[in-house]
Structure to design on (242 residues):
């Protein structure tokens, strides 16, 4: 019995260590930890904010968001799902044609913490290839589903030359709430230099949630104007960081 116990401990300890190493980056999903890594949290130029959208492209939500952004004269960053790009390549091209920046949100919207490193690597390779082929643009940024990174996520992103970026504040717009509440949720935690997270698709949210998101953008614009903050895509926002 003692020999079996010792053997189990001897084998189990390295496995536990590997599991901990795999999961350690997921701690950045917690805001207090993420704040220790300002670039990962998306802190950039203090005279503005970066506006980002996840989960698209979507044949209903993305055009509505693009129209609202055009009315405001804003340029944003869209983190695209490869599976959605495969279904709606024309909508993905519309994002790029409108002058917006694109990033990779994965091929499937699955938590990387419960996936093996090889599976994550194949997922990001497939997503990057699908997005590049459909849009003619190779993505620069990477944001994992649910904002949960793993060691496999980071290794795959590095191999594909994708820069991981999470967010500073979100609007909780996946809940199918009101435009006013989305605005207020963003403003409650907003500081100059933040990166904002919204969604242009309801593929992982309540049906029709994108409607409130699109309607919240003009409300947000008025609030940001009062604060003297400009809106930029991630690439510009982070490059201007002091």
């Amino acid at each position: 019995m003692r020999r079996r116990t010792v053997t189990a401990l001897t084998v189990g300890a390295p496995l536990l260590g590997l599991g901990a190493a795999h999961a350690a980056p997921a701690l950045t999903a917690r805001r207090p930890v993420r704040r220790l890594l300002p670039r990962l949290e998306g802190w950039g130029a203090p005279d503005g904010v970066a506006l980002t959208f996840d989960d698209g492209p979507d044949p209903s939500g993305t055009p509505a968001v693009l129209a609202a952004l055009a009315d405001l004269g804003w340029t944003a960053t869209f983190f695209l799902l490869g599976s959605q790009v495969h279904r709606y390549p024309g909508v993905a091209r519309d994002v790029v044609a409108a002058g917006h920046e694109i990033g990779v949100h994965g091929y499937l919207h699955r938590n990387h913490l419960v996936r093996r490193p090889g599976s994550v690597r194949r997922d990001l390779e497939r997503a990057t290839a699908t997005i590049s082929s459909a849009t003619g643009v190779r993505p620069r940024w990477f944001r994992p589903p649910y904002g949960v990174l793993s060691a496999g996520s980071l290794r795959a992103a590095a191999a594909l030359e994708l820069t991981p970026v999470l967010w500073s504040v979100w609007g909780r717009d996946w809940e199918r709430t009101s435009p006013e509440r989305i605005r207020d949720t963003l403003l409650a935690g907003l500081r100059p230099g933040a990166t904002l997270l919204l969604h242009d698709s309801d593929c992982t949210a309540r049906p029709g949630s994108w409607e409130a998101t699109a309607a919240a953008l003009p409300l947000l614009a008025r609030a940001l104007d009062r604060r003297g903050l400009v809106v930029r895509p991630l690439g510009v926002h982070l490059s201007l960081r002091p």
About this structure: The chain has ten helices and eight strands. Strands lie at 48-56, 77-80, 101-104, 141-142, 163-164, 169-170, 195-199, 230-232.
